[in-house]
Amino acid sequence: MDWAKKNYDTVVLGVCTALFVFNAAFVYFESSDFISSLPTASEITTNKSEATPAETTAIEAAMGITEKPVLWNEKSASNEERGNLFVSRLFILKGDKLIDPIESQENLHPPIPNDWLIKYGLNFADATIKDQDPDRDGFTNLEEWDAKTDPKDKASTPPKSTKLRFIKFEQKPFMLVFKGNPDGEGQEFQINANNARTQFKKLKETIDGAPYKIIAYVKKEAEKNGVPVDVSELTVENTETQASIVLVVKKETNDPTSFGEFFNVLTNEKFRLQKGEVFTIKPDLNTKLKLIDISSTEAKIQDVATGKTSTLSKSSSPAP
Fold first, then answer.
1. Nearby residues of 23 by Cβ (< 8 Å), 6 or more positions away
2. Per-residue pLDDT tens digits for 282-291
3. CA gyration radius for the chain?
4. b/e code 79-102 from CB counts within 10 Å (16+ = b)
5. pLDDT tens for residues 115-158?
6. pLDDT at residue 42, as a whole number
7. How far out from the chain centre does Cα 43 lie?
8. How many CB atoms lie within 10 A of CB 221?
């Protein structure tokens, strides 16, 4: 006993070692019995049962899903932005109101409706979206919406004439001036050609040096400051175009063949047109246009192929 007390640590270590050896021997013999109880390869029989067609189809479908998982559809059947699984669709704060661009009746960028911006995938959250040109055809989104064209398709554009600016009107005096009726009977008329040469002509006669003939005369009087004034009218007709013009006695008349100066915004070019002239504008050289009328305030342009007309008001600011 005295020896055990003096060598306590040695005794404890010996007891632990004995327990470890015992446990190792127990595990060894137990595992030997388990292995000997397993069937041999010759004793194993194969299960020859086969999966049914329905089970095979289900397995193949499951395999397909694992290989190509279903993605969250961010858009509805109508192609509207509906957000995704974790993020809501975009709402816009306008002033103190939160606007849903899809459901709201209030347009974010009037007059363009929200559904038009959504249809073409345009960023309705951008304050400058109306002035942008996604397809770089020279026309803004506002111009494309107004013309009902595709803002993402360069081949789909508004009429090129909308990019014209009417900047200057040129009017010159008519080449003939009706000076009077010398005989007072309306049988012979004094005509000045180009304000220089004087001629005396009768009805149905052609004026020398000008493609005009006299076709009608109307004697008229008006009162000015209590005094009768001769305002008789002489009508002449262009022998080439059959266009007629009325000349008032002793009064200068504007030439019906007027001119205008225009500016092409797409190409930054100026050009001059005569009333009645057929022309094209760059870059579209296939569409023929015609200046059908012009005045000091506006010009009317016609598409020769479609007959559609557009009116250009005279620009208040000069072109660059």
1. none
2. 877 888 999 9
3. 49
4. eeeeeeeeeeeeeeeeeeeebebb
5. 898 899 898 888 899 999 999 888 999 999 998 999 999 888 88
6. 57
7. 80
8. 9
The residue with greater pLDDT, 29 or 92, is 92
* Cα angle 233, 234, 235; round to 5: 120
Measured in whole angstroms, how far is the alpha carbon of residue 150 from the centre of its chain? Answer: 5
* Inter-residue contact 209 to 194 (CB < 8 Å): yes
Q: How many CB atoms lie under 10 A from the CB of residue 78? A: 10
**Joined tokens for residue 268:** 């930054």
Q: b/e per residue, 229-250, with b = 16+ CB within 10 A?
A: eebbebbbbeeeeeeebebebe
What does the pLDDT average to over 166-170? 91
Instruction: Calculate the CA dihedral of residues 257, 261, 262, 263 and round it to 10 degrees.
Output: 170
Residue 16 C-alpha from the chain's centroid: 91
Q: State yes or no: pLDDT of 307 exceeds 70.
A: yes
- C-alpha pair distances (Å), 62 with each of 24, 68, 69: 48, 10, 10
DSSP 73-141: --B-TT--B---SSSPPP-EEETTEEE-TTT-SS-SBTTB-HHHHHHTT--TT-TTGGG--TT-SS--H
Task: Check the CA dihedral 313-314-316-317 and report its sign.
Answer: positive
Check whether 199 has a pLDDT greater than 80.
Answer: yes
Share of the chain above pLDDT 90, in %: 30
pLDDT greater than 90 at residue 272: yes
Tokens representing 11? Answer: 């005794």
Query: Are the CB atoms for 320 and 312 separated by under 8 Å?
Result: no
Write out the two tokens for 271: 């050009």
Those residues with Cβ within 8 angstroms of residue 272's Cβ, 6 or more apart along the chain or in another chain = 170, 259, 260, 261, 262
